Amino acid sequence: xxxxxxxxxxxxxxxxxxxxxxxxxxxxxSALIMRVEPPxxxxxVSSESKGNPYEPDEVACLNTGLYCETVMDTRRPLIVPxxxxxxxxxxxxxxxxxxxxYLGVPISWPDGEIFGTICALDRKSNGYxxxxxxxLLQWRDVLQADLRSIATTQREIxxxxxxxRRLVDANIIGIIIWNVEGQILDANSEFLRxxxxxxxDLLSGRVSWADITPPEWRDRDALTMSKLxxxxxxxxxxxxxxxxxxxxxxxxxxxxxxxxxxxxxxAFVLDLTERRRAETEARESEQRFRNIQMELxxxxxxxxxxxxxxxxxxxxxxxxxxxxxxxxxAQRFLTREQPDVERAKKAIDRAVLNGMRVTEVVDRxxxxxxxxxxxxxxxxINEAISEVIGLTxxxxxxxxVQVRTQLAEGLPVIQGSRVQIQQVxxxxxxxxxxxxxxxxxxxRELLISTQAEADCVLVAVRDSGPGLSEGAIERAFEAFYxxxxxxxxxxxxxxxxxxxxxxxxxWAAANVPKGAAFQFTVPINSDC
Length: 528
Ligand SMILES: Nc1ncnc2c1ncn2[C@@H]1O[C@H](COP(=O)(O)OP(=O)(O)O)[C@@H](O)[C@H]1O
Ligand SMILES: [Mg+2]
Hints:
The protein has 528 residues and is of the alpha+beta class. The protein has helices at 9-26, 67-74, 130-169, 189-195, 199-203, 218-231, 273-335, 341-369, 381-398, 418-437, 470-475, 491-501, and strands spanning 30-37, 40-46, 59-61, 78-80, 101-108, 114-122, 174-179, 184-187, 233-242, 248-257, 264-271, 377-379, 402-407, 414-416, 445-452, 456-463, 506-510, 516-523. It has 3 domains: 2-162, GAF domain (Beta-Lactamase, 2-Layer Sandwich); 170-271, PAS domain (Beta-Lactamase), CATH 3.30.450; 375-528, Heat Shock Protein 90 (2-Layer Sandwich). Strand 15 and strand 16 form a beta hairpin. The longest helix has 63 residues, at 273-335. It is rod-shaped.
C-alpha cells in the first residue's frame, strides 16, 4: 500500500526542478528519478533538457542489466565513466539510447524498501567528480525526506480510515452513502438489516433512495435536500422506510453532505421499532392505569355521595314538599266560590321555582355520579366550589357546622376537569365535617377560601376539628389509610393524584388555632 502511494503534485513539481537543475549543473542530457514498479522500473521524473531520450512514464523491464538495477541491488552509488570501455557494462540496454556514462544513487522509503534511483546519464565518457556525487547524495536526502512525509500522511489517512470503517462496521446505526440522483453508493449491514435488502439489491442501482421512501415522505426529502445544500447537514428527524417485504419501518435519520463532493452525502439511520413498541406499551399501560384510576375515583365519589344520601334526599324532598304545598294552595284559591286567580298564580309561580330547585339538585348530584373520563375545560373555580358547598349544605347543617367562604373575586380561569375538582372539594369538605362531628362540645367551623397566587389559584379548606398528628399529616394521603370504622381511606390519595394531574400540589397542615387545613393549588395557564 505505502510503496504504491501516489506522490502529490506539488512534490512532483519540486522533484522536476531537482532533475532539471541536476542536468544543467552536470551538463548532461539526462537526469532522472526512477521508480521501481515490479517487475518493471519506470521513468518517474525526467529532466527537461536537450537531447534527453527518456520520456516520463516510460517503463523498462528489470533483470536486463540496467545501471539503475545495480544501484538498487547493491544499494550503493554507481559511477560508470565509459561503458564502452568497461567489459561489465558494454552491453547494457541504455547504450542503445546512446548513454555511455552513468552516475546514480539509490532512494529508499523510510522503512528501508527501495523506491528507485536518482541518476545522471551522458552520451560521452564522463568521470563525474566527487563533488557531483556529493550533490546527488544531498538531493537524494531531500527526496527521502519527502517520502517520509508522504508515509506519515499515508499512515494518518489509514488510521483515520480505520476509525471511520470501525464506525461504519460497528453496525450500531445504519449508515449509507448516496448521491443526489438517489442512488445508494454504500451501505453497512445495519442499514441492510433495517430495510431488508441485500448489498447487491442496493448497490446494483435497482433500488434507489426514492424506492424505499413512502410517497408521503418524498416532499420532506426534497426539503432535506435543499437544506443540505445550504447548511451541509440536517438535524435528525423521524421518517419511515418501505422494507423489501413492503412493510414499513420507523427510523430516525440524520444527513450530512460529504465534504468536497456536492452531490454525495452520508445518512445515519436508527431503527425506532423497539422504541415505538415501548411507547405503545407505555401508552397502553398508562391508559389502563387511567381507567383504573377512573374506576377508583368513581367508586370514591359513590362512597362519598353515599354518605351524603340522607342530606341530599332531604335537599330534594324539601322543595318537593314546598311545591306540593304551593300547588295545593293554588288549588284552594281556584276552587273558591270567587276564585282568586291572582294569588293562585303566585302560588303556582312559587311551585315552579321549587320544581326548578329540585332539578338543580338532581342535576348536580347526577353529574358527580356519572362515570366519564375527565375532560379539562376552562373552569371558574369559585363557581365549581360553590356548587359543592350547595350539595353538602344539608350534611353540614345536620352536623351543626358553620360554613364561611372567602372566595376571591376576579380569579383567573383555570384549565381543569370540573367533576374532578369538585370531587376533591367534596372529599375535603366531607372529611372536615366528619372530623368535626367527633368533637362533642366545641364550635364547628368550616372555612373555605380561594385566592390568586403568582402562577396558580390556591384553595384552602380549614376546619376546627381534632386536626392531624405530625405522623398522620403525610400518612393521610396514603391509599387505604383511614382512622374511620367505615372509611375507605382512598379519598385523599385520589385527591392528590387529581391535583397533581392538574399540575398542582395538595398538602395538609395544622390550622390555627386548631383543626386541620387542607390546601391545593391549580396552575394558571397550565396546558394540561
Ligand atoms: N380534616 C381532617 N381532620 C382530621 N383528620 C383528617 C381530616 N381529613 C382526613 N383526615 C384523616 O385522614 C384519613 C384519610 O382520609 P381519606 O383518605 O379521605 O379516607 P377516609 O375518609 O375514608 O378515612 C382519615 O381517616 C383521617 O384520619
Ligand atoms: Mg375521606
